[in-house]
What does this fold into?
Amino acid sequence: MKIERVDEQADGNVKIFLRVENGDDSVEKLRALAESESADLWKRRISADDEKEARKFYNAQISGKEYSVVILDVGDDINQMSLVDPYYNSYDDVEVHRLMLLDKPRTEWYMKTISSLNLSHKSVLDVGAGSGILSLSAASAGAKHVHAVEAAPLVGRALAQTFKTNKVDGSVHATKVEDLELDEKVDVIVSEWMGFYLLHESMLDSVVLSRDKFLKPGGIMVPSQAKIFLSLVSVPNLYHERVSFWDNVCGYDMSSVFTHSDSFMQEGSHVLIPLRTFSGRPF
It folds into this structure.
């Protein structure tokens, strides 16, 4: 294995691309190590032909910069892999997809809704396909072709195998939907883009773009609409934990720490609260 490229990211951090060679361990094993091993272990593991690139790697550690390691298989395109950012990498965590699949009301609603559509002779685009449950449902409902778009690299490769295993007539596109090019417009777009407080996963822009770019006139979107409800609540414990806590810290008034920070208002929180805390009807 050798260093193929070292990229300085826009945030000042470093991304190191390592290419496996004949005789190396399995790619998946190396990718698992990339998530767990320390920088020192990687220094000992890497044999770099280009000393300049090697020094850039070592210096990145000495300077204390954050770094990430991308393992390239023999046939992987480095230009495509370099486009992946931490947002998409976070969806390579299998646990994320397991938890979504275990959300029974969510999963069953999608499967029931998709199965109720007449997808015979229709093409379907699944935006942010993930585990592929929506794509599989569309195929089972008779879709002539399913385009599954997934930018998370490991999940995308697993999804391609899932298509083969379940004999799905479709294509897996390992890219962002913003970069996707199709030879056809589709009849149906499905996507599980909703997160906490509806917008948490920041996918709505991608779904709207895919609609404008790929959906045929009169085509179907699942889901096609959503609502956010607001309500005043009174949660004294949460207020103390986040706000009034700073009024008395070990006998000292540190309220200025809170007043000079806007993170409390800018960062959303997912908190379960009792119904009795609602001060009015949601609107």
Summary: Strands lie at 2-8, 14-19, 67-72, 123-127, 145-149, 170-173, 186-190, 215-222. The longest helix spans residues 153-165. The radius of gyration is 23 Å.
